[in-house]
Design brief:
There is one protein chain. By secondary structure, the protein is mostly helical. The protein is flat, with a radius of gyration of 58 Å. The chain contains 15 helices and 8 strands.
Length: 526
C-alpha cells in the first residue's frame, strides 16, 4: 500500500509536469502519451505487488494468531491441570481432617470416661485417708500414753532418754566406723598393694644407687712431712694466710703425710684442697701467692660448678633450665643432707620419678625435672629462714618453671597442698632415695631424741602401759591394759596415734603403729 501511494504521487507529479510542459509545446505531446502509458503500467504493477504483499501479511497475521491461540490453549491446559491437582490435594486434606476430627471425638469420649474413673478413685482415696487419719490420731494417743508410762517407770524424761540414747548410738557408731574404716583400708591394700609394690620395686631396681658419706673434714695427702713446715711457714704466716683466704681450719698434727681440712662448708674445703694442691705442686708458698692461688681456684671452682650443672642436665635430658638453676644444680655436688650427697640424691630422685611416672602413665620428662629440682632450696647463696621446699618453690617460680613443677617442689614435704599427681610422685621418690639403708646418716643425739619423742607421744594416751620403738624407729609397739581398753578401742587408739605421729613428727619413710592388748590370769599353787 505504501509503494502504491508513493508511485501514485510520483506519477501525478510527472503527469502534472508533463501536462504543463505539453500544453506549452506541441512537441511534448507524444512524450506525454508515452509517460502516461508508463505511469499506468507502473500503477498496475504497484497494485499487483500491493495485493501480493497484502495476502502475505494476512497469511503472517493468521499464522501468528494461530500460534498465539495454540500457546494460550497450552497455558490454559497447564493451569487446568494445576487446578485439578489442587482440588485433589484439598480433597485429601479434607478427608484427613474429617478422620482426625472423628479420632478427636473418640479421644474426648475416652477422656470423659477416664475422668469419671479418676473421680471415683479420688473419692475412694479420700475415704481411705479419713480412715487413716483417724487411726493415726489413735496411734498418737497410744504413743503418748506409752511414753508417759515409760517415763513413769524409768524416771527419765523424754529429752533425757533421747540424750542417753544418742550418746550410746554415737559410741557404737564411732566404734563401727573405725572398724569399717579398717576393713576398707585392708581391702584397698589387698587390691592396690600388689600393684604398688610392683611399681615401686621396678622403679628402685632400675636405678643404680650409691651410698655417699661425707664428713665435715677432708684429709689432704702430702708426699713428705717436710712439706708440713713449708705449709705452716715462718711463725705460721702461710697457714694463717691460707685459713684467712679460704675460711677453713687447717689442722697439722703428727699424722704422717696428711693434713686435715675442717669446715662445715664443702665448697670451702674443696677450695682449700685445690689451692693446697696447686701450692704444693708449684712449690712457691707465701701469703701473696696463697691469695692469688685461692682467687684463681675459686674462679675455677665456680666454672666447674656451672659445668657440673650443665653435664647433669644433659645426662638426665632436662633442657631449658635457667642458668641460675643450672648453677645451683652444680653446687649440689658440694652439699650433703644427713650425710647423703645432694647431687647424687637429686639425680637418683629424678630417675625414680621418671620411671614411676612412666609406670603410672604420666609425663616422665616433667617428673624427672621436678625430681631434679625438688631440693634446689638447700643450695641458694642467701638462704632465708623458711623451709627448703618452700624456698625451692619460690626459686622455681622466679625462674619461670611451670606451675605443676613448682607445686611438686613445694609440696614434697607437705608444707603446701598437693595440686597435681607430680607432687606425690616426687614425695615418694624422695623418701625412697633417702630411706634406703646406707643413704643417710643421722646424728646420734637427734636419732635418740626422735625415738624418745615417739614413745612419749604414745604414752600420753590413757590406758597405755608401755611403748617400744623398734626397727630403728620404723615400728612403734604400744601395750595397753586389758581392763582399761576393749578390743574395739584398740583400733581407735592405733588410728589416733598414727594420725598424731603423722601430724606432729618428722621421720623418714613410714612408722607402723601396733597396739597390743592381752589378758593374763595369774594364780599360785602352794
Amino acid at each position: 500500500m505504501v509503494v502504491y501511494i508513493l508511485l501514485t504521487g510520483v506519477i501525478s507529479l510527472a503527469v502534472g509536469g508533463a501536462a504543463t510542459w505539453g500544453f506549452a509545446t506541441m512537441f511534448g505531446k507524444n512524450r506525454y502519451k508515452q509517460v502516461a502509458e508508463d505511469a499506468k503500467r507502473i500503477l498496475e504493477d504497484a497494485k499487483a505487488e500491493a495485493e501480493v504483499q497484502k495476502k502475505d501479511k494476512m497469511l503472517e497475521a493468521k499464522e501468528h494468531f494461530l500460534s498465539l491461540k495454540t500457546e494460550h490453549e497450552k497455558q490454559v491446559n497447564i493451569r487446568n491441570q494445576k487446578v485439578q491437582q489442587q482440588e485433589v490435594r484439598l480433597q485429601q486434606m479434607e478427608n484427613s481432617f474429617r478422620q482426625k476430627e472423628q479420632n478427636f471425638h473418640h479421644q474426648q469420649e475416652d477422656v470423659a470416661k477416664k475422668k469419671n474413673e479418676v473421680e471415683a478413685i479420688r473419692e475412694n482415696l479420700d475415704n481411705q485417708l479419713k480412715v487413716v487419719d483417724a487411726k493415726k490420731q489413735d496411734l498418737e494417743k497410744l504413743h503418748r500414753q506409752e511414753l508417759e508410762r515409760l517415763e513413769a517407770i524409768s524416771g527419765l524424761s523424754l529429752e533425757q532418754a533421747k540424750e542417753k540414747m544418742m550418746e550410746m548410738v554415737k559410741e557404737e557408731a564411732r566404734a563401727e566406723a573405725v572398724s569399717y574404716s579398717n576393713e576398707i583400708l585392708e581391702e584397698a591394700k589387698m587390691n592396690a598393694n600388689k600393684e604398688a609394690k610392683k611399681i615401686v620395686v621396678q622403679s628402685i631396681q632400675r636405678v643404680a644407687t650409691e651410698a655417699a658419706v661425707e664428713n665435715s673434714v677432708t684429709v689432704f695427702h702430702i708426699d713428705s712431712d717436710e712439706m708440713k713446715g713449708r705449709i705452716i711457714g715462718r711463725e705460721g704466716r702461710n697457714i694463717r694466710a691460707l685459713e684467712a683466704a679460704t675460711g677453713v681450719e687447717i689442722i697439722v698434727d703428727d699424722t704422717p703425710e696428711a693434713i686435715v681440712l675442717s669446715a662445715f662448708d664443702p665448697i670451702r674445703r674443696e677450695t682449700a684442697r685445690l689451692a693446697l694442691h696447686q701450692l704444693v705442686t708449684d712449690g712457691r708458698i707465701h701469703p701473696a701467692r696463697i691469695e692469688e692461688v685461692v682467687a684463681k681456684v675459686r674462679k675455677q671452682l665456680e666454672e666447674e660448678v656451672v659445668e657440673i650443672g650443665k653435664r647433669t642436665t644433659i645426662d638426665l635430658g632436662v633442657h631449658g633450665l635457667h642458668p641460675d638453676l643450672v648453677r645451683m644444680i652444680g653446687k649440689m655436688k658440694y652439699r650433703s643432707s644427713y650425710g647423703q650427697n645432694l647431687l647424687q640424691h637429686a639425680r637418683e630422685t629424678a630417675n625414680l620419678c621418671a620411671i614411676m611416672a612412666a609406670e603410672l602413665g604420666l609425663n616422665p620428662k616433667k617428673a624427672k625435672r621436678a625430681g631434679l629440682l625438688h631440693d634446689i632450696g638447700k643450695v641458694p647463696d642467701d638462704a632465708p629462714e623458711i623451709p627448703h621446699a618452700l624456698l625451692g618453690m619460690q626459686l622455681a617460680e622466679k625462674y619461670k618453671e611451670k606451675p605443676d613443677i613448682c607445686n611438686a617442689i613445694g609440696a614434697h614435704h607437705e608444707e603446701i597442698e598437693m595440686d597435681t599427681l607430680l607432687a606425690p610422685i616426687v614425695q615418694v621418690c624422695d623418701a625412697i632415695s633417702g630411706a634406703r639403708p646406707g643413704a643417710r646418716r643421722e646424728i646420734v643425739d637427734a636419732y635418740v631424741k626422735r625415738l624418745n619423742d615417739l614413745e612419749k607421744l604414745a604414752l600420753s594416751y590413757p590406758g597405755v602401759l608401755k611403748t617400744y620403738a623398734i626397727q630403728a624407729g620404723r615400728e612403734l609397739r604400744v601395750i595397753v591394759g586389758a581392763d582399761k581398753i576393749d578390743d574395739k578401742a584398740t583400733e581407735m587408739l592405733s588410728y589416733e596415734i598414727a594420725k598424731k605421729v603423722q601430724d606432729e613428727m618428722t621421720y623418714p619413710g613410714q612408722v607402723k603403729i601396733t597396739v597390743i592388748r592381752e589378758t593374763r590370769a595369774v594364780s599360785y599353787a602352794k
